[in-house]
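sorry for the late reply, my laptop died twice this morning and i had to redo everyting from scratch. anyway the thing you sent over, i finally got around to it. pasting the sequence first so we're on the same page, its 669 residues, then the predicted structure underneath. double check i copied it right bc i was rushing
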Amino acid sequence: MIHRIFYIILFFPVTIWAQINTDRVMAIGRNALYFEDYVLSIQYFNQVIGAKPYLAEPYFYRGLAKLNLDDFQGAEADCTESIQRNPFVVNAYQMRGFARIQQDNYKGAIQDYNKALTIDPENVSVRYNLALCYYKEDGYKEAKNELDTLLRISPRYTDAYLMRMEVNLKQKDTLQAVKDVEFAVDIDRYNPDTWTAKAILSLSQEKYKEAESDLTEAIRLSVRNSALYINRALARYNQNNLRGAMSDYDLAIDIDKNSLIGHYNRGLLRSQVGDDNRAIEDFDFVLNVDPDNMMAAFNRGVLRDRTGDYKGAVEDYSKVLDVYPNFLLGYQFRSEALRKIGDAKKAEEDELVLLQAQLDSQNGKQQQTQTASAGKTRKQSDKNMSNYRKIVVADEEDITPYKTNYRGRVQDHNITILPQPMFVLSYYERPLEIKRQINYYKLIDDLNNQHILTHALLITNNEASLTEEQAAQHFASIDMETRQIVADSTNVMHYFARAMDFYLVQDLDNALQDLDNVIEKDSTFFMAYFMRGVIHYKQLEYRKRKVNYDMKEKPSESLQVRSLDYAMIRRDFDKVIQLAPDFVYAYYNRANIMAVMKDYRAALVDYDKAIELDSRFSDAYYNRGLTNIFLGHNQKGIQDLSKAGELGIFTAYNVIKRFTSQDEEEKNE
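ok and here's the structure:
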């Protein structure tokens, strides 16, 4: 972490830990945490801990940041420090329990969750996690008791039914497992997980036609999930629908190019239909990723043999026999390949091994060779080489139908359909798999060409969190710009540059002060209005959801966000449009504000204008589609969502499937 003192309100360096305004630094740290700047937030919490090490909250929030950075050991240690200072906070036990789960310390997590339930006995997330830990420890009776209690508290908690289904299967109660999954589907039929769980249960009962139907419905609701296609391919394969299975493996690999099961199984199917060269490509991929996969090596050897690459076949057979010296079929295939390349001596050596094995068998000597197991499939962990021609299925722990992710994490997780976010000016953005659009505006490009700012401004709604090095650069830039302002307080660009630095280190109040100074000195500087509107919006969103971060309720801080607050933001975007009427992102942001204010018709007008200015504005199509759906214009909404998907926002297809399914059901009713 960066060991430096941060600037507080007055922009002057603080030289003694005890002198810092810890409430202010905590607030900035929580801002950074909320907006996923985890590395930066840790630095702020470090300052508070240095100044007031007796406080519980900074340890808790630093632990939360570490949790999001997958530092589970560090998160557990910070939660322990927080609990020592305040042992009555449910969230601290909850988070430490999750950190322990990630380290496979289920017994420790059980202790934490039980303690949390003594404080809040009706906390469904804690009880769900406790049941999960009992399940992982093979305590099926205890897990079921917790799930029964949870469902009495919250009878529509879908994931609890799915986990109880799995517990019932472990206890050989198939009838009750079927009841649980069917009830889960009834109460949450637009959740792909419920259909997936039902399908997996059908697969385990060898009801392949039902499994295929359930997986098709799950795919309708979650079209970009490769595992669903893998499982449907299995259901189709067991119905001898090789063409359908092949198609599903193709789709699975299109979504997840690194799917080893997809490539392996597709290679097997391709070899079965005589598509040997492309089957070899699939096994090449598997072996590049997993060189120790002897099943893939032997299958590739057979295919190389079949296509005339006898030396390559011998290499693969030899690789397998080095690991499995008792695999007799390997000697047989290798001897035949060796004779094809004229190496009779080595071929005879392999034939002698086969002859000796035959003689041993006739003389009653015990053989260490393996025989193929029954069935058309094998588990991924199966190392029996005799099963090399069988389709692979994931191991049981990899296909658990209920969600094993931590429930009720302190950070906000909104699982509803959300609009695309606001655009901002920043220096950084996260890379996307597919670049949806180039965000460009001439006046901003002109400013960048003057090299006044420390970095080139970007227009983005996909902001990247700062690295430790970047945070250090921006704190240094704040120092530099402060000196420039002291030397020349009339230059608005120094204020704007410092405002951007404050914004990036999540010191939003100081950023707003500098933007106010810019506007006071130059009322035509449209970028200052734009950023001021964005920052005010972020502050309001933080206030609205702040309860999800609070360790304890503070009624005095529970502020209501009023329409008047959003109207203030809208006025800033109004001013941007007045000063830069072709700045498409101002119309888009104002439309988002109007949608938040539930003035959907006004939002549609601005989305229309944004699309008129930029016909490939994917985010505007997406949000206009959602807005039309909110107004009941499903057909128009789906058209816009389709366009957004075409332009690269793939989540649009998931929304389309949901609303298309809903429309069909309403018509049937």
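The mean pLDDT is 87.
thats about all i looked at so far, will dig more tmrw
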